[in-house]
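Build the 3D complex.
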Amino acid sequence: MNEDKIIKGFDPIIMKRLVSYLKPYRMQTIVASAALIVLILSELLVPVIIQYSIDNHILAETVSVSGLRTDSIMLMILLAGGLAASFVQVYLMSVAGQGIMKTLRVELLEHTAGQSLAFLGGTPVGSLVTRITNDVETISELFSTVIMTLIKNLLVMAGVIGVLFYLNVNLGLVTLLTLPPAMIITLIFRGRARTAYRRVREKISAVNSFLSEHISGMKVVQVFAREAAVQALFDRRNSELLTADFSEMYVFAVFRPLISFLSTFSLAAVIYFGAGLNTRGTVTLGVLIAFLDLVRKFFRPLQQISEQFTIMQSAIAGGERVFDLLDTEDRIPDCGGACTDLDSDAGIDLCFDDVRFSYKDGEPVLRGVSFEVAAGETIAIVGYTGSGKTTIANLAARFWDADEGRILFAGLDSRKLPLALLRRTVQAVQQDVFLFSGTIRDNIALGRDFSDEQLLAAAETSCLKPVLDRLDTGLDHELSEGGTNLSGGQRQLIAFTRVIAHDPPVLILDEATASIDTETEKLIQAGLHNLLRDRTAIVIAHRLSTIRDADRILVLGSGRIIESGTHTELLELKGFYSNLYNLQFGLSAD
Amino acid sequence: MLSEYKRLAPWFKKYLPMYIAGVICLLLTDAGLLYVPRLTREAVDIIAAGSPDLHLILRISVIMVVISLFVVIGRFGWRFFITGSARRIESGLRGLLFEHILKLQPGFFEERKTGDIMARFTNDMRAIRMACGMAIVSLIDGVFMAAFILVILFIDYPSLAGWIIIPLPVLAVLVLGMGRLLGKRTKRVQEGFAALSSIVQETFAGIRVFKTMSREQYAVEKFSESNDEYIRRTLSLVRIWGLFFPLINFLAGCTTLLLLWFGGLQVMDGKMSPGDFAAVLSYLNLLVWPMMGAGFTINWLERGAASLSRIGELLDVEPEIKSGDAQTDDGIPVAPVGDIDFRDLNFSWSEGTDAVLEGISFSIPRGAAVGIFGRTGSGKSCLVNLLPRLYDPPPQTIFIGGRDIRTYDLQTLRKSVGLVQQESFLFSETIKENISFTAGDAADERIMEAAEFSTIARDLKEFPFGWDTMVGERGHSLSGGQKQRIAVSRAYLTDPEILIFDDCLSAVDAETESKILRQFIEKRKGRTSIIISNRTSSLSAADFIIVLENGRISAKGPHERLIKESGLYRSIYRLQQVEHERR
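Done.
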């Protein structure tokens, strides 16, 4: 996905696809369009009424106060009508724009969340967030304001020209004298403004990404005492941004005054030629005064139109990125089918049958792994970093599909099970717990309906209960983002409770690599034990107690199983395991 | 509210001439604009009188054009001077803020979210720019235009003015009142947007959990609810917003309506000329928008003040780690050279928590290579983080060259004490730039040499663009070992007086680590090196090794001696020997 597609040419296909989202809001669009027409009429008729009143009632041979009163009432009605129409139009289109925005956002999130981890892992979270929030926001703006005001401005300009000609053809022509230069200036401006805008965006994003990166990497900067150099780099980016800001400002500072100059120029021309025509009796004073007003009405939209085109183009570019994402299909293939639970009363056994896998071609991670886990058995997998332990967890949960070989649950090929069923059957848990902002309850239930009893029972089993009891609000305790207001051990207990509540028959547990202090160890020990009880489990083990408690241990080395057996058996073997074991846990072999 | 702006005083002072020039331009523009209706009136009256003198009219038209040329220049001028200054202030403040946070200790960044700090640099800066630019323009423009037009109207048309300005107080109240309400609701919308974004952010950061539990639908539901809330907030804003501009238009129209009625009657009575009518019409048109802008000013200034106070909060954070001021007689900061002494060092992360280091006392003679060995959590990293004062040791506990490290100039100290951490941080730049990060002007040969040293040079051919390959979030992804070796090259290039490797080759295989470290010790003869590693083989070349257990020194001596004494070091050494032989 290209972040730099800020502005592109007008793409009718994207536009068509965008407009198709307007369908459910047909009524709103129709009513809003009608309101828009009323609004435009009211804007155009105001000068006409004034002209009419001046020529026919105020400056006429026989003045007519009652006529003037009628005109004033008419004007009042027009103004009120304009007010109402304007509100109705803005409100209805906002309703439509907001509705479309929601549809698009939810569609995008749902679609994207359904993609494979391979895709999601390879796409920076930040860019997904930008797609779903900012890009969609621009699109909604397109519907709620830009399209309508653009149409309105174009129609008002056309209408003004129409009224000018209706009032007086010659004077109309005089006014339009400034139209060609105005259009040329606008065209030049559009190009310049676009370039300037793009440059500003680029520089802003350069400054921001520099900032966020150096804030994250501040320690490195300070360790090497590179503050001055980093400051210099930042100052360079900052001043480039300022330069870009200035060049954008110049564009606007020249364009806007020029257009209003043309407006005054037209005014002067209208007065001069109007005076000439007036002497020949073709232009009344009322018409002349109306022209003075209309000229201004003509030039005001001109100032806005080019900006609206720019917004429209960036909305289309946003649309393109959004549709790119929406059209991405990279899911784990789901065979579908009926989602009846596997018969798990007797437990479910798990089997890896000569599984081979590589994330990248030519770099095999698993080179033929076969093992069986009996129902209810816990096996621990140990091995050095990079030996493929985590890959086993990923394949078992079918976050990736094996290149060769099969993974069987209760004798059934995991690829032939409906994905929803598979995910209910086998759950992979990481000990680097991810907690969402929300309550503890939300974090455990993840939106499934559990009664308080069920949740508390799960908390009891996982040993989270004592922690809950100490909190005033218990299950409804509000977690800050990432659950940073809890200790590491407490967070793990919440994750355990989550699994126990959802109760999968097969569990893949990836233990945290970071060492755990004694206190945490104590805290989670019992919970972990209960979690593994009565479940078929594979544990990517880093902790001594987990390994010792396992029924069997598999030692993984360069993508193969090189040793297997119980803790005692393997120690006696005095092979790879006993080394690894002693190394990692630093126990004396004396 | 205005007191917050004191912080900007130096800039206001600096750009005062610019602001004055801008205000002059603005006033000239306004004066020009105010003059045009007078010309219009003159012209219309001449025309209304019948058989006009076209030369006179032409002169009026030409004057009009000339005035509007000046208006063009004036408008350009105030934009250039005032909004230009605002942009400069924004840019300057951004630079200042960054300079300030560069001085803050690592602890500060651990406590705060990057996003929070970033918001100061983005949204708050924008609000300040508005306050220093458009707010000032609108205020002056609005006040000046309103005052003058009202004066003109009341002097020239006293019997009419009272009537036609009736909608204006309403307009003023409306803009002030609604402006505030708009501000409030806009803020609520922005908060709603932030909530939306954080749900998306969380969903994808924690996508594994949802997938594992097959609960993607939950995220979608939560998101959908949050969207409904956002829509509710936006529409509540639109209900005001959608009424705001139309109402202003309406009120502007009402002044025209009142002019038509009352002015019309006066024209009929001959109390007013048609030219007067046209002129008043123009004045009214000039009046409405500046008044609205002036109303918004309050809002902009309020928001600017709020943003300034948030930025001020950051600027007021005092760097906890203060530079010392040891200087030579020539006024140059003393460079830390000489033996390193730890004297009864006790350290804990914060008061009242358990000590991480207890009673550490030992010396490292200048030029020695020292190994530090210990299990995870034994305090090794903490010990070496204290040397460059990333965390501050208590006074009189660590000395270099007989001087407390807290008395050295901080920059000089850190330039002399290099530290390569286990978690290597690479910037989104090329490999070459990441290596030369510490020495921006290093020659290519030196960079290559550093790359050879860490053996990362071997890997360069694997990368699509060699050492010009971009790394980091948007670039080529590197293995842990590659990152670590780049970080080692980085340190090699700086070649400081004291260099610390904090287990920074843990992701590299034992043989390569030991090879690099041996070379390293060889290369650095005469300067001090401290090496942390979990592999005894890597430490064997060190002059002596400190063994840390639970924050205390449990053994000390050269490799040869430690492997003869029973203890942690020997047992691990033997285990690693066995493994080595097996291979």
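Chain B has three domains: 1-157+297-320, 159-271, 340-582.
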